[in-house]
Amino acid sequence: MAKKTAKKKAARKPNAAFMKAMTPSAALAEVVGSKAIPRTEVTKKLWAYIKKNKLQDAKNRRMIKADDALKPVFGGKGTVNMFEMTKLVNKHLK
User: Which of 56, 48, 55 lies closest to 32 in space, CA to CA?
Assistant: First the structure.
C-alpha cells in the first residue's frame, strides 16, 4: 500500500483579472462612483447599494429590483436575478 503524502494547503492567491482596476460606465458610475476600481469592489459597492435601498425581493432573495439608477445598468429590465446581474454589470466595466 502506498502512503498518502500530506501536502500543505497553499494560501489562495487573488486572481489578477479581478484585482485590475476597471472604469465604470456613466450609468454604473451613478451607483458605485466614477473612480477606477477592481471588480471585487464594484460588487461590494453594488450590494451595499442594493441592501441600503432594500432592492432585494423579500420572498425570493435572489431577485434584485431595479430602481431608476440601476435600470440602465440592468439593460432596462425591472428585475434580474443576482447571477444575471453580475453578467450585466461586467458589460459596464472597461
Answer: 48
CA 85/CA 57 separation, integer angstroms: 14
User: Tens digits of per-residue pLDDT, 82-91?
Assistant: 999 999 999 9
Q: Which of 44, 38, 14 is CA-nearest to residue 24?
A: 38
Q: Which residues contact 94 (CB under 8 A, 6 or more apart)?
A: 22, 23, 25
Q: pLDDT tens, 18-71?
A: 788 999 999 999 999 999 999 999 999 999 999 999 999 999 999 999 999 999
Task: In whole angstroms, give the CA distance from residue 36 to residue 34.
Answer: 7
